[in-house]
Design a protein that fits this description.
The protein has 212 residues and is an alpha+beta fold. The chain is built from seven helices and eight strands; from the N terminus they run E-E-H-E-H-H-E-E-H-E-E-E-H-H-H. The chain folds into three domains: 44 residues, Ribosomal protein L9, N-terminal domain (Ribosomal Protein L9, domain 1), CATH 3.40.5.10; 86 residues, Roll (Ribosomal Protein L9, domain 2); 46 residues.
Amino acid sequence: MKVLLIKDVYKLGRAGEVKKVAAGYGRNYLIPQGYAIPATPGAMKQADRIKVKATERRAVLNEELGSVAEVLNGKTLTFAVKAGETGRLYGSVSDEDIVEAIATNFEIEVEKRQVETEPIRQLGTYKVPVHLTMDLIPEVEIVVHREGEVPGEESEAEETPEEAEVEAESAPEVENEVAEAALEVEDEAVEVVEEVEEPEAPEAEEDAEAEA
């Protein structure tokens, strides 16, 4: 079905635009939540007016929330969690957890729908966008570390399968380089011994002639 957006909808479009969406998405979410109306001929006559009004409203919001975006952008939130040896969490860090952490740390209220992330179920560092408006999307850094450890230790202690594979592939090359280096050292040692021993031979012959 086709709908006319009357509000900005992230990843779908801006107010005043006509979009083709799944019937269930349109009837069960966009229209009941006030984000869109059916794109009837009568509604289409309002498209330009809706777009102008939305542009004006968006400009006001961008100005009002600009300072909020500056506060959030690049900030780090840490979560100490219980996790197994593989780094998988006993549970998850959800968008609700991030919303609460933002409120606690920065005294900024955002809604869950503004935090774009799937539940985090693995130790590590993640970049999570926060959609304040269509134009203001600051990113916060989410650090998920094991309880009792300093953030960042798990990334040093645990290597990814890709890193392990690279190390396994490079191991024979390293061994060959070590072996070649050892042979070079051995050859140099032999040459040094020969250089030291060769001058001694004439002296031994002279001593033998003197005794005779």
